[in-house]
TrEMBL record:
It comes from Halorientalis pallida. Residues 62-123 form the Glycosyltransferase 2-like domain. Transmembrane segments: none annotated. The keyword Cytoplasm does not apply. This is Glycosyltransferase family 2 protein.
Length: 239
């Protein structure tokens, strides 16, 4: 499977280094213009990193990111998208955070969408390569909606919250609106797998009826989610 993913991909390296301190993985399509994000990465305050463009219209975004994980030559992988623009200190800031050896996942913000910690926006994520490979990378069953958040939640489950850092000052710029659109089936899968975290993060009960509603929904998802995970869902295999 892994060989097929890379074989069907077009791996481009507009920036390379002999022993890169970071690998920046960007999924893209042949029909899309990625020149802006690459140009922003040429203007970084550090130089020793590589940029990996996974340029394929045959792969979904999860397969493309996983191909980038496999191709990366650095122990630290930074993810962004082809319609983003990196501030000049973006790479330098990420590297400074990973100087803490206990951190395996770095979560930043995006200027047009910064909901806070534990939402794991794929346009601005950093991860330890071996940890990402160990949990199987991104899951294509969530491609296009919730794939990045689901990846973050599996990292939480595997390595604990102490290994994850949210930095509100590590920002990625995203001109225009996000291109992803809500997918109902993905949302249902996600809520079934992670009922408590979904409700704890998204809903804050502020009145008795609201609290009753939230607790009832959470219990329903807990029961159904246990059945779903037991009967239908399997974790991705290591990359």
């Amino acid at each position: 499977m892994l060989g097929d993913i890379i074989f069907r991909s077009v791996i481009l390296r507009p920036l390379s280094a002999d022993s890169p301190s970071a690998s920046i993985v960007i999924p893209t399509l042949p029909s899309r213009d990625h020149s802006s994000v690459v140009e922003s990465l040429r203007r970084q305050t550090v130089e020793n990193f590589e940029v990996i463009l996974v340029n394929s219209d045959e792969l979904d975004v999860c397969e493309a990111r996983n191909a980038g994980i496999v191709e990366a030559d650095s122990d630290i992988i930074l993810f962004t998208d082809d319609d983003c623009y990196a501030p000049a200190t973006w790479v330098e800031t990420a590297l400074s955070r990973f100087e803490n050896d206990d951190i395996v996942l770095l979560e930043g913000t995006v200027d047009v969408h910064s909901p806070g910690p534990r939402h794991y926006i794929g346009a601005n994520l950093g991860v330890d390569r071996d940890a990402a490979r160990r949990i199987g990378g991104f899951d294509s069953r969530f491609a296009g909606w919730r794939d990045d958040t689901e990846f973050g939640y599996r990292m939480e489950s595997a390595l604990g919250l102490d290994a994850i850092q949210y930095d509100p000052d590590w920002e990625m710029l995203h001109p225009g609106e996000f291109g992803s659109r809500r997918k109902l089936l993905n949302e249902m899968r996600f809520k079934l797998l992670y009922p408590r975290r979904m409700h704890d993060l998204i809903t804050t009960p502020d009145e008795p009826l609201r609290e009753l509603y939230v607790s009832t929904r959470r219990e329903w998802y807990r029961i159904c989610g246990r059945l779903y995970e037991t009967l239908l869902y399997s974790r991705p295999e290591p990359l």
